[in-house]
Amino acid sequence: MHVSRLTLHDFRSYDTVEIDLEPGATAFIGSNGQGKTNLVEAIDYLSRLDSHRVSSDAPLIRAGAERAVVRADVVKGDRTALLELEITPGKANRARINRGALPRTRDLIGVLRTVMFSPEDLALVKGDPSDRRRFLDSLLVLRTPRLAGVRGDYDRVLKQRNTLLKSARGRRNVEIATLDIWDDNLARTGAELVSTRLLLLDALAPHLAEAYVRVAAAAAPDRRDVTAIYKPSLDLDPDLRDQEAIRVALLDEIARRRGDEMDRGISLVGPHRDDVTLTIGELPAKGYASHGEAWSLALALRLASFELLREDDDDPVLILDDVFAELDQGRRQQLAELVGDAEQVLVTAAVADDVPEALKGHRFNVAGGEVVRD
User: Fold this and answer.
1) Rounded to an integer, what distance in angstroms lies between the CA atom of residue 23 and that of residue 25?
2) Beta strands, E only, 156-281
3) How far is Cα 196 from Cα 373, in angstroms, rounded to an integer?
4) Checking CA distances to 157, which of 33, 123, 349, 361 falls within 20 to 30 Å?
5) Is the pLDDT score of 244 beyond 90?
6) Ramachandran region, residue 287 (left: φ > 0; alpha: ψ -120 to 50; beta: rest)
7) Could you read off the pLDDT of 72-122 as tens digits, one per residue?
């Protein structure tokens, strides 16, 4: 799978830009603030309907414009599909494939699949639980697009349930007639998310272990084992994967914590409270890993994601957004060797010399709102 053409209208800093792309490695070179990341962000957004830089759509629209359009020709085997997304803050976005409107924007997810490496990835190791949950759910949805609907349903149930709890905050003796219904909905949708996250980590584990060994080889000859262990908001058997059993466990825990939830006016049980503990050797990576180890682990998580998606289907498009400036020479070379066989690799860098020789391939210079092939 690769993108053969990208067209943007009023996306980020671009009024209009159109570039032709090819398989293999392509580097976008330009000083900071010139718009090189905007190009790869648009491709990644078209894949996941999510940005690695912002949590809302408004910053994606060029200043003074009402909406943005991202359009890409995606080649898979001997077929080409035209993907289009119209982004309008405050309104429903609209998506098309081959000019035909999709009934739901989320139906676009996974048609183009991407894996992006960026400086923000360090948060996967050192950041909050929400960063690791977002990583898991984004990968889940790319593998199984229908889970975007499950995740959306869960978020709506959680919001409604929190509203009810907030209305009864501090009044334990108050009965809320509809709360039991929302408990059931939270447990049902939450159980599917927890179950699929656990299964995802099972599938990811061997790829993560291998990727860390390979990424860290140049800098850490001892090559300690790494693990990713799911930490739910309730006491679950570590080997439990059955969705119905998890639903019952969630309901039991919700009932047990009901008083605490009414005191605090917020839902305390569910996948929105879960985390993933990453370890290097015998110690948790958060708080113990060196900067280099944390970077190796973050890169290994992305490489493992790539290998898992590749195992399911064709190669995703790999995006390396300004990561080489963050890495020492050994890790740069190691990463370049590991991703060199991907069908399409898109690289951004402020300095051309930061890009390893194996990934220089085709080159575009980005400056002053213009993207020019070198």
Assistant:
1) 7
2) 226-231, 275-280
3) 43
4) 123
5) yes
6) left
7) 999 998 899 999 999 998 889 999 999 999 999 999 998 999 999 999 999
Per residue in 120-166, pLDDT (tens digit) is 999 999 999 999 999 999 999 999 999 999 999 999 999 999 999 99
Length reported for the chain = 374
Q: Can you name the residues that pair with 57 across neighbouring β-strands?
A: none
Number of H helices, E strands in the chain: 9, 15
Give me the residue label for tokens 């990453």. Answer: 278
Beta bridge mates, 85: 70, 95
83 three-class SS: strand
Query: Which strands form 14-20's sheet, in the order they lie side by side?
Result: 14-20, 2-11, 68-76, 79-87, 94-97, 100-101
In sequence order, what are the residues at sequence separation of 6 or more whose Cβ sits closer than 8 angstroms to the Cβ of residue 47?
109, 110, 111, 112, 113, 114, 142, 316, 317
Pairing state between β 283-284 and 275-280: antiparallel
* pLDDT for the residue 313: 76
Residue 256: Cβ within 10 Å count: 11
CB 364 within 8 A of CB 343: no
Strands 24-29 and 68-76: unpaired
pLDDT at 175 over 80: no
Q: Give the contacts of 23 (CB within 8 A, at least 6 positions apart).
A: 2, 343, 344
pTM: 0.92
Q: Which long-range contacts (CB under 8 A, 24 or more apart) does 300-303 make?
A: 300/208, 300/211, 300/212, 300/214, 300/215, 300/216, 300/226, 301/121, 301/124, 301/135, 301/208, 301/211, 301/228, 302/115, 302/116, 302/117, 302/121, 303/207, 303/211, 303/214, 303/215, 303/338, 303/339
Eight-state DSSP code of residue 119: G
Tell me how crowded residue 165 is: count the other CB atoms within 10 A of its CB.
21
The H or E element that residue 149 is part of is: helix 147-167
d(CA 306, CA 339): 9
- The 10 Å CB-count burial string (b at 16+, else e) for 16-41 is ebebebebebbbbbbeeebbbbbbbb
